[in-house]
Amino acid sequence: GPDAAFYTADRFVHHIDRRARQELAVFYGTMIHPGDRVLDLMAGWESHLPDNLRPLHMHGVGLNANELAGNPALTAQTIQDLNTTPQLAFEDNEFDRAICSLSVEYLTDPIPIFREVARVLRPGGTFSVSFSNRWFPEKAIRIWEDLHDFERMGLVTEYFLQSNCFNAISTFSSRGIPRPHDDAYFPEYRLSDPVYAVTGQAMAR
User: Fold this and answer.
1) Fewer CB atoms near the end CB (10 Å): N or C, the chain?
2) DSSP sequence for 134-179
3) Alpha helices, DSSP H only, in 94-141?
4) Is 39 left (phi over 0), alpha (psi -120 to 50) or beta?
């Protein structure tokens, strides 16, 4: 069904466990610096940044107004369905960094969106796309479910390559870490949710 209808419901829930969220925050802390202008793509109520990191400007683009309003990291918000409107209403070179957290599997036509992200990034700015092994089954693209975790890293890397707008592509993975004992899924699942990310650097146009 339409994404806009699906996201009318508020979902103030964590999409990965606490330890995995900590790992993702540490990773973003290596990519984003104080004073950066940051685009948070497909944003919700959490941007997964370290608590002590305050970018100069952080603009969230998402589909649920209440979640965006409840995100303390954001300084501005836009409601937009990227699957129907991939064009971003920002100037060229407007951002230093862009992130997309735990949502890339919902993009039905990702290449135009990756090109748009490259356009609004300054040359040399980075786009980091993170994901795990948890998602909304009714919203993920069909191939995502059929791939191994590391094949998903390959698929996202291919998005960067096919956009022809990024270089210096790198990957990150964090897995095999014990799940907190007070987690609702312990001891059924003894390991925390894995965290994967692919990062590309916007090329000069």
Assistant:
1) N
2) ---TTTS-HHHHHS-HHHHHHHHHHHHHHHT-EEEEEEEEE--PBP
3) 110-120
4) beta
Looking at per-residue pLDDT, the higher value among 117 and 51 belongs to 117
pLDDT 10s digits, 34-86:
999 999 999 999 999 998 898 889 999 999 999 999 999 999 999 999 999 99
Cis, bond preceding 180 (omega within 30 deg of 0): no
Q: Are 83 and 106 in contact (CB under 8 A)?
A: yes
DSSP state letters, 12-73: -S-SS-HHHHHHHHHHHHHH--TT-EEEEEEE-S-----TT---SEEEEEES-HHHHHT-TT
What is the C-alpha separation between 193 and 139, in angstroms, rounded? 20
Average pLDDT over residues 88-97: 98
User: Which of 48, 118, 129, 116 is CA-nearest to residue 83?
Assistant: 116
